[in-house]
Amino acid sequence: MTYELVGAKESGSWRELLSGRYAAVSAVLAGGVLVEASNVYLTTSLLPTIVADIGGAEFYAWTMTSFLVASVITSMLVSRLLTTRGGVTSYVLAFVLFAAGTVICAVSPGMTTLLVGRAVQGLGGGLLAGLGYALIQRALPERLWVRAAALVSAMWGVGNILGPAVGGLFGQFGAWRLAFVVLAAVAIALVVLAVRAIPRTETGPSKSAFPLGSLVLLTASVAAVSVASVVSGIATVLAIAVGVVLVVWFVVYERSATASVLPKVVFGRGLPLRWVYLTVVALAFGIGTESFIPLFGQEIGALSPLVAGFLGSALSLGWSLAQILSATAKTPRSVRMLVTAGPLALAAGLVGYGALQHTMPTGVVVAAWFAVLLVAGSGIGMAFPHLTVAALGATDDEEEAAKAAAGINTVLLIATAFSAATAGVLVNLGAPDTVASAHLLVFGFAVAAVLGVFPAMASVRTGPARDGGS
User: First CA to last CA across the chain, in angstroms?
Assistant: First the structure.
C-alpha cells in the first residue's frame, strides 16, 4: 500500500459530516474537545472570583499545573484504552471523570479540594482531547478525515472564546460554582450521546505492555516545566532545563522500548511522522503567546480587561476560521502549500504584532493588533488539519494508528507547556518594561515558527509503504 500523507481518493463535504448519519458522531468528537478547551479558559477567568471566595492565592498557578499534568498522563493512554475497551467505554469513562472532577470543583470548600477536582478533571480532559483525534479514523470514512480534524481542532479556538465569555458572565455575579455545575451537566449529556452515536468496535488485549517508563518520564517532564511557571529567577531556568533533559530521555527511551507511547513508525527511516510532530511543536509556540497577549493589551494599550481578553482570543479565532477553510483543500499540491505556509504565516503575524508594540498606541494600531493576530492564528489553522490526517494515515496497524493520532494531542500538550514556560521566562527578562517583554516574546517565538518550515516541508513528502501495509 502506498503511504500518502496528502490528498484523498474522495472528498467529503461539510454537509455530510455535520448532518445525517455522521452528525451525532461529529457532535461527540467536537463536543468532548470543546468542553475540555472551554474548561481551561473558563477556570482561568473564574480564578480571581474563586480565590476571593475560598482563599488559596498561593496555589493560584497550581490549578493549571494539576490539570495539565493529569491531562498528559491520560492522553498517553488513549490508544491502549481504545484497543482494550473500545470507543464507547473510553468516551463514557472520559466524560464521567471530567464531570466528577467538575463537581468536586463546584463543591470545593477550599483550594486543596479544588486542586483535587482539577486533577480529576484533567484525567478526563486528557482522554477527551486524545479521543477527539483518535476516533476520527475509526468512526468516520477517510473522505471526511480532513474536515473532521479541522472541526475537532477548531474547538480549541472556540473554547478560547466561549470559556472566558461564560466564565466572565458567571464570575460577574459571583456564581462560579454554578458555572462548574453547568459544565458537568453538559459532560453528562454528552455521555448519553456518545453511547448512542459512537460505533462499537472489536476489543482485545493490547499487543504491548503498559508503558510505565514512558509515562513516568513524560509526566515528570511536564511537571518540571509547569513548576517553571510558578517559580522565578534561576529556579525557572533550572526547571525548564530539567524538563528538556527528561523529554530527550523520553525520546531515546521510546526508540528501544517494547512498551511505548508513540507509534514505532515515528522512528522509521524515511517516514514523515516525526516531521509532522515537530511541525506541531513549532505551531505550539504561537499558542504559548495567548496567556500574555491580554496582559500586553492592558498594560501597553490601556485596554479594559474585557477588550484585552478578546484580543487574546484573536489568535484562536484566526486558527478556527483558517482550519475550516483549509479543510476544503483537495489536491496534494494545495495541501503541501498550506502546511508549508502555516509556520510562515504564524511567524509573519507574530513579527507584525511585535513591530506594533510601543507606548501610547493609537486606536488604529490597536485595531492592527487584532488583524495581525488573526494572521498568526491562521498559520496554525491552515496547517493543523492536514497534519492530523497525516498522522491518521501513518500506519495500517489499528493500535499503532490510534497512537499516531493521539500523539498529535500529546505532542501539542507537551509543546504548549514548554512554550508557556518559555514565554514566562522571556516576559520576566523584559520586565519591568512591558514593551521589551512583548518584543522578546513574540520575536523569539517568531524565530521558532520560522524554523518550523523545515519539518513542515518534510512532513508533506510522499514516503514509502506504510508500516504494516503491503
Answer: 5
C-beta of residue 243 within 8 angstroms of C-beta of residue 221: yes
Distance (Å, rounded) from C-alpha 42 to C-alpha 287?
17
State the average pLDDT over residues 328-334: 83
- Structural domains in the chain? 12-208 (1.20.1250.20), 260-461 (1.20.1250.20)
**C-alpha closest to that of 206 among 77, 87, 71:** 77
CA torsion sign for 444, 449, 450, 451 is positive
* Cell of residue 208, nine digits: 504491548
pTM of the model: 0.76
Ordered alpha helix ranges (H), 211-258:
212-228, 234-256
Could you give phi then psi for residue 439, rounded to 5 degrees? -65, -45
Distances (CA, A) of 162 to 101, 378, 409: 20, 19, 21
CB 40 within 8 A of CB 71: no
What pLDDT, on a 0 to 100 scale, did the predictor assign at position 223?
81
Return the closest-CA partner of residue 154 out of 9, 300, 29.
29
Angle between helices 305-326 and 145-172 (to 10 degrees): 170
Go through the chain and tell me how many residues it has.
470
pLDDT at 466: 41
Q: What are the DSSP calls for 403-466, one per residue?
A: HHHHHHHHHHHHHHHHHHHHHHHHHHHHTT-HHHHHHHHHHHHHHHHHHTHHHHHHHTS--SSP
